[in-house]
């Protein structure tokens, strides 16, 4: 070991490394410990964004940005402090693979239609009355609804209602950027004209586990919006039985014509943790972003306690030990890059054996100041 280190630090090796750098070449012998870790060592760090901050900044943005002035959307994204310096694609990264944001739309506003190679989803945090129009279908949104806009579909938002609406966006922006797959196109008009009845797909799938016969062959988004009352009913059914030791009662949003995740690269869950539930700790290759839809409690991530309540966002990066405790009945919405890990066949998972599956708490989360 010492001999190896001596060799790597020797003048001869150091000089050679410097010399080949001029030709845009690199020495594997020095780089391998950096490039090929024994296990994931993500640059994204566990982090918590409080609702008070997100809400305050969205309110300040009401006048700073309006769709008329800036086009596009009034969205503020969660920039992981561990990835801030990583240009260019650390920019806009909540985890190494996913982007998450909060978006505010005011009554009377329209966010113009566009399409892109990134897949998007929305989880409605607050308000009702606005719609997203996805491929000609107006999807009217209410609290707790989950909406998808898989890659390549036209989508825009408009608000004929009378109260501000806030939702969470999640897209695979960092992933598509990293692989060089970005395409973006604005719609020729401001917003699409409806071409099917409002809430068309939710009506077609009203029955749940039965599919219209014309959907036998896989479709990218046979169901555009997943209504909160249906998600809640599924969790009520599930909660009559034993919880999963790591995740409590959790359901995953799926594409009803393929059975796969609703979005191609992003898994989305709604999770119910009854008051007093304490999960066991585990870790997996995939990273997760949680949105606290209802309730309060805390998570322990790599030995650090993160206390959360309604509206907060928590990031659990790759391979980080995590467990949750519910101080009241909690509903957590979450997204993860597990479909990406599964496509590459690198998803691993392990449960904590020691101390009945619970971590030792070594500290409490403190926000990082620049
Ligand atoms: O609402 O279509 O936060 O295209 C980022 C990109 C939201 C959207 C975001 C988008 C959207």
UniProtKB/TrEMBL annotation:
CDD domains: cupin_GDO-like_C, cupin_GDO-like_N. Transmembrane segments: none annotated. The keyword Nuclease does not apply. InterPro entries: Cupin_2, GDO-like, RmlC-like_jellyroll, RmlC_Cupin_sf. Gene3D superfamilies: Jelly Rolls. Keywords: Dioxygenase, Oxidoreductase. It comes from the Bacteria. SUPFAM superfamilies: RmlC-like cupins. Residues 103-169, 270-331 form the Cupin type-2 domain. PANTHER family: 1,2-DIOXYGENASE PROTEIN-RELATED, CUPIN. This is Cupin domain-containing protein.
